[in-house]
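Subject: sequence -> structure tokens, single chain

Hey, anyone have a minute? Need the predicted structure for the following. Not urgent.
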Amino acid sequence: MSYWEEKHSDETKAFQNECVELGHGIVSKSSNMFLVCVDGSRQSEEAYRTVMNLRRKFDHVCIFHAFRGDLPDLQPAYWRPNQLESKYDVDLVSHIPKRLYSMCFVDRQGDSVNTVLERAVDPDTFKYNADRSEKTLTLKPDFIVMGHHGRKGPKETKASIGSTADKALRNLHYPCLIVKNQLPEGARKIIMAVTDTNVSKRGLDILMRLVNSKDELILVHFLHKTFDGPHGLRLDAMRDYYDKELNHIGPARSRFEFVEYAHEDLSTAIVDYVNNEDVDLFAIAPRAKRETSSITDGVINRVNVSVLLCKI
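Reply:
Had a minute. Here:
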């Protein structure tokens, strides 16, 4: 697991180092903590149902909602904070023990949803000597889960994500699951784009926290047809590494494969491949930056399935 020891001394890499540190903590735990963002929309309900289908016996679920307490309560009843809290409390208590779920309903007092969410999950607030009065969450999340759009509905392009999800992906240190389709309970088909970098190897460790023994897992390395570099030995080493990892920790139905593409744009090749497969979840592990790359951005907004983004 030496690939978890990669550090960057440059102060500008502080965000990435924080992501790596959080990721290492996640893969070292015996259970997951899911923070699912809800707002009463159909898509947030799918995000919640996805979490309930993903969670294992001892995983914790936290329902997060940021509301405007300074406005007249003229919104539909099913959007109101007290109705949302009651709804999820009733549903959760019928499925899991009370000690394994929690609620975090925060009056945003004029701030944006993203500002409140970033403040709630700021890694600094969970450090040993942090001021406990600043905490709104009692547990540090491992995965942040949200629908790809909120109450305003889908964007002009159906697969595109909304502004809240987009800003969360850019600014949060944690692995984020953007739900476009409800992940089923039981067997799922998962595709992850991989390379031979430490970032990709760490991303696979994060993904394996969500994979069960019934799933089908396909690791894909995309290779341009015109690539003529000294790639033979490197590609053999990559295949050998991922084959061994899948044999050791992967489900029975798992494999690694190379996919050649002729597009100039790698993101288009990835999107075409994923959208032509009958798949439930796509995962990618880009290097942690506050601004996603053009490839990552293009993939997230154009694939038709849920996306797990591990910024490590």
